[in-house]
Amino acid sequence: MSESYRIAILGATGAVGTELLELLESRSFPIAELKVLASPRSAGSTLKYKGENLPVEVVTYDSFEEVDLVLASAGASTSKEWAWKAVEAGAVVIDNSSAFRMDSQVPLVVPEVNPEAAALHQGIIANPNCTTILMSVAVWPLHKFQPIQRLVVSTYQSASGAGARAMAEMKTQANEILQGETPTTEIFPYPLAFNLFLHNSPLNEQGYCQEEMKMLNETRKIFGSNEIRITATCIRVPVLRAHSEAINLEFAQPFNVAQAREILSQAPGIEVVENWQNNYFPMPMEASGKDNVLVGRIRQDISHPCGLELWLSGDQIRKGAALNAVQIAELLVAQKMLRVSPATA
Ligand code: A2P
Which of 116, 164, 262, 322 could bridge 15 with an S-S bond, Cβ 3.0-4.6 Å? Predict the structure, then answer.
């Protein structure tokens, strides 16, 4: 019997959790046992995996006994409560939340960028913020070729970034508005349907929201470079799924546009989508459900001789969260860094 692993998904009923289940199945991840964990709200429900109904278990201290790998996607406070307990019980945790991303003991990994960092883990590996993952995949191949000096990014972030309940809320709001009713707001601070607003995370004293600071700090950590100057504006837009980003890069020397296009078309995890005649470029609707980040509108910044402009759309639930986590797990398997289920060892 080939080696396989006992897996737990913490937050299995959420938008990212259900995508994790789908990816483990479609990518044939070697699983000996699979536990699906959530909050008491989900007690009694089931989730489908390979045609079977798995009972959702409420997470408790015993949940991590005899588990080799935990894929956590239940928010930062839940991760803070459970991740180290899972590590103490012998599991490796790949954590989707922001709880440990900037912890110097915890690697922050995008497999296309810094796969080598995964090997340095001490029990927990952090999955970066979704907009940061999408941007890193697109920008790293250019940065490797010629270091970026300054990066200016504006994001167009879909409802899916705030979870399954936020997606449902936006649909309800759209119906309410079309019927002339006042839109209900429970998850988001303001109506998102037919509207947009600054990303709904707290602002610091410099006027940057938490999401913007994540993009600044996490990108530097993933790239292993504190020198890049980065500024970000993060906006929530009325798109159901997949985020988009307008990225302006400044290099020390001019970057040939044809060469940038060639580098990006060869880079892993990227699909260049450009049809200049038809004004056809990456769109969130077309990025939804895809593994690759769609990158296009690669052009010279006419305001700066060393500037380059990019536009991208990427599925935030997939590459921005669940797929990146599963790819990290696949790295651990390939490097034989996971405890193997005794049944298959
Ligand atoms: P539940 O469905 O039982 O609330 P999303 O990001 O789509 O909102 O999903 C969040 C996920 O995290 C859900 O699976 C949710 O479970 C789970 N979750 C939230 N809080 C907790 C908690 N305190 N303990 C365990 N799971 C939690």
Answer: 164
